[in-house]
């Protein structure tokens, strides 16, 4: 079934299946979407409405205890790939009362004293919410691996730990939507340069960004291993080409919409006597 | 200085000063704003842009450690007065990355085992954020008083404890904007009746709402005491007539805008050598 400008299911087209090779993905591509930027922006605006309505229904259903469903969007990417733009333009269209956003930074001393999944578990969305992880437990097998922040054996252990954790999470009613925003190194260079050129963007630039950038091939290898090891049936990865910001936003919105449509939340029936309450209210 | 359709400073016009009497406020009034609903909605849309820009600058400034400023909006009201609409339509216009929203429910057992301010302290906004409390520590002297959930002496102690807590909070760089949305009991009856009449609103209705409604005069007394005891120079209360939803949203937006304008956040200067970084990036 195609919706809006999509020629097929974004969740299938972008999904990481067996044999997937990140090196084969063109970050400038816009797979599955036939429209241009203008129609993409129009579709994004329409989708914001739908996403908001679906989330409100999910929230309503959860309040009466009729469901334990929620959605968790996991966002990973190289610097400047557009995670912030997704949060602002896709997630930002939803009522803040239904959003649970966590931006994971380098772990604190307390966090480091626990298993790497400890801080993540605490931030899983409650029923009815759309949770968003801006970075996640995958940092522990990305920068963790590239920078050797943990012994090789420990990194190795983490892939299985992640799969087990995500299987449990999924079984508890949380639909996990994992997204890597994929830009080209050339596109990143332009975006970082823009941050250096505009005084209102200087604060977004960090000299460390270039240090990481110099390790680009090693990061791509680490992502490939993440995809090989942790793209599972219950929690598959999606690689979203992100040189076109508008396409990436539309694609992530589409993935969220499909996750919510699959839950198909309904307005819950009243768990009180409506007519009796009308009388009581009228008399009050 | 008047801005947009305001004939004066909303923060002064709506502020609870010595001698304030809640009974004198007409919930159907629209003090300080000369425009009609249409111009009010237009001004709200303009304000969303400004609020977003100010918050981004505040956030930027906080990232470089140049400031510890943040803003905390405390929302209190009788049921259906429009707290949710404020969160959706005023706060919802700001990038979710800069918002820290907490909806306080009846305290859990763990929370009850601590002082009433314990759970509130943990939810204070970090520098750079706009924190929003949907209900707050004031519940402990509102429903807490009306329903005698604590001994009279303990309720009495809490007003001073709140003032001390808010003085410290304010001194730490958090600008506290306290708002009571004030509707009439007649308006509430209509809004609750609408929830009973629309299947997509049934989940928002709770029979307990009518129980609280029956205690309306006692709640108004409890609010009056709150205003008498806790409207301080560093954290004054504002009573916003809220029978007109559009006016209430515009007024709360104006209060937030003024709080941010008073901070007057600036884009921080780069704490790195811009030209050296440009070269390093270009060579990477």
UniProtKB/TrEMBL annotation, chains A, B:
Domain of life of the native organism: Bacteria
Kinase recorded as keyword: yes
InterPro entries linked: P-loop_NTPase (IPR027417), Polyphosphate_phosphotransfera (IPR016898), PPK2-rel_1 (IPR022300), PPK2-related (IPR022488)
Record-annotated Polyphosphate kinase-2-related domain positions: 51-264
Keyword entries, A-Z: Kinase, Transferase
NCBIfam families, sorted: PPK2_rel_1
Protein name: PPK2 family polyphosphate:nucleotide phosphotransferase
